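Lecture notes, unit on protein representations.

Consider one protein chain, 268 amino acids long.
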Amino acid sequence: MSIKLFVTDLDGTLLPSGQRVSAENIAAAQAAVKAGVTVTIATGRMYKAALPVAKALGVDVPIITYNGALIKTVAGEVLYSNYLEPELVCRVIDYCRERDWYLQIYSQDELYYAEENQYAQAYEADQHVKGHAVGWDGLKEHTEAVCKLLSITDNSEETDARIAELRTVFGDVLSPVRSKAQYAEIINPGVSKAAGIRKLAERLGISIADTMAIGDAENDLPMLKAAGHSVAMGNAVAAVKKVCDYETGTCQENGWAAAVFRYVLDQK
């Protein structure tokens, strides 16, 4: 097995939620790069939240962010974007406002929400970013270059119900997906980490057969299926473990580093 492009999710995979990359994982990433493997990130995070992690790893390739809606280099060059239409963003804002759902939007790589509450504060602490409280009407003033919207709930059941409702109401003009138990992400149809991997592999001249992806959550499923090889974290949801070729240890156990040495570098 020859892996030339190794694509990783962030939260729950490369790093525990809200924490820094471990020394073990950094060492594994550097060992892979030294062996000629391109190591890169595919994440639901906004670009500004993913960039520090990429720099910590020494990654010098484009980063797939917003679940594939934006591919941007470490230097800041935009290679691909798939933004939601402003009119559609306004419709979602109105719909969530009527139901008193928490909603945050990402416009031009800035975070906006109606009011600062426990959801906003928890998200900011987890992602190490700071957003802007602008009110519901104010959200409609930030509808340009929106990669995604995010509604945060109290539990996975509520998240699934919210996603189902959005799919029923908006049909095929939106693609809601659960990225965490409490995260209902709203993106354009066709946007996925899988599409991001294909675009990046093509740009680098790498066959999809020589790619490997690693992840833990449902929004990782498309990229895990699209990659030539796939690894599930030990803490991955059942659906992820079911489709992957291999399984490693948990995020807390530095299962990411173990996967790199065993499956990418073929060190038993």
